[in-house]
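Write out this protein's structure.
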Amino acid sequence: MENILIIGSGYVGSAFASGLAAKNSNVKIIALSRSKKALPDKIIQIHTDVLSPKLETSVSSAIQPNEQLKIVYCVSADSHDEQAYRMAYVKGLANCIKALGSFNVARLVFVSSTGVYGQNNGEWVDETSETCPTSFSGKILLEAENLALSSQFNSSIIRLGGIYGPGRVHLLQMLNRGEIPHGNKNQYSNRIHRADCAGAISHILFLENTNNVYNGVDSEPASYAEIANWLGSGTQHIAANELKLSGKRVRNKKLLTSGY
């Protein structure tokens, strides 16, 4: 039986856990979060914090250290500030790596963000492109990626774009008010549906041979002007100057080539 530990059962983690439970009867799924989540009964829930000094003991209550274990780390920060990001992604991950060091970990998948790419002139980027984040969030996530890859575990990274799906209506509400995110209709947006987030994570977790880093985005980036017009927001067509598009365009070819 496969043993899967999901650290972080939020918007993506809960979808991944529920999908895994529905499709795999021969898998023991352990979901770690600070509070009880609405998950299928077959999922074992552990309620603790990633920074807890008793994390090893908590996980040991559900799985023996000698049993093979695969881990998905997909936490989210409490708020969008530097301290919250560092606690969730760097210190939290470091504590988990230390606490689970005695376990038989076959693979660790760390869920990161395309924010680690800092390109901003409409360039196409892939997993071989320079990572030069300008935001504190991108810098901290890149630090966490390096922490995972330098650990004793066989680690893979998936860099997700902007996540959309059920309940995510903030962008739609902004466009309905006639607002453009970041105030820039000419900026590229790289997105991915929650179902594809869960599917891609599962795909990477069970691959026999993995490469270190994968981008998780839809196949075609779009400017915010294109998104607004597609949604039919407002009464006036929003024009974008194709010669002045900013941001980056993220390729997903590596993930697709791997079989997803």
